[in-house]
Please model this.
Amino acid sequence: MPSTLAAPYSMVATASPRLEQSSNQLQFAKAQSSMASAGLSQISKASASPLHDPSRQAGTGSSWLGKLKAHYPNLLLHYLAPLIAIALVMQRIYRQASTLSRTRLEQAIDERTQALQLENLRLQEMSHRDPLTGLKNRRFIEEMIAQDLNRVDRSYDATQLRNEELPSKADLLALIIDIDHFKPINDTYGHLAGDRVLSQVGQRLTTLFRNYDYVVRWGGEEFLVVARFIDRQEIDQLAEKVRHAIESMEIELDAKRNIKITASVGAAPYPFSTAQADRISWEQVVHLADMALYQAKTSSRNTWFSYMGSDQLSIPDELQLDPAKIPRIAMVSSKPLSRQSL
Model:
């Protein structure tokens, strides 16, 4: 009996510490649960606080904007619209200023370009002028004559292709004028007197020809006249016109002294021969006019000679311009206006 009772008691005694331990664990768990509940409660209360209520904050913001709109219903009209208008005006002013600046820059560039062009023309004009007489110079003829020669050549080529009559007023006439006994004028009256003679002769020649003809200071006491786009048959009349006009001049050296002068003239047309228009170049025509001048100077002075090709006179392929051979290729005319073969 005692042993039967002892066994359960020992089991109870053995289980008591375990129950106490389980009870302690249960109490600790309850304490933790209570603390967690308290924390959640506090967090819940804190979350429910007005300071942490998002809807309350939104309501506060809406209330501020609503109050602002209520007090200032025309906020956009009074503030933003003027600012936008000012910005647009400033943008327009900037564009206008940019356009004006660009226009002024372009105008300045145009003015500068025009000034440079005018200066270039002035310099070119100076390079084409004889400083003493104010006439065109040899350089001008060398640069400008090519376009005239092309025009003449086209006229004759066109008539040959169509088998038409020769073109009228399509020729260039070269006349070289040389003042007779010019060196004695310089020796007797001085070089200033010689310069006055050259200037006055040059001015007289410009009155004898059309404004689109070329009157050129050729060099020394020589002048070259190019009568442009004229009938070749007028060459002798023009040569006599020049000779007579200079013979009729009275050169004023100063207030007390006047002198008389004469000149010799040599002339040749371009093309030299209408039947063989491409055989004689412009340079050769000028040389032929110079040869005619030399013949006038060596004959009697105060006269003129002209050389002109003829359909009856063939020009050889290899031409040597020799005075002795001129009658073989050209008709020779001289003052008075009569034709003769030399």
Remarks:
- Confidence is low (pLDDT under 50) at residues 1-17, 42-52, 54-61, 337-342.
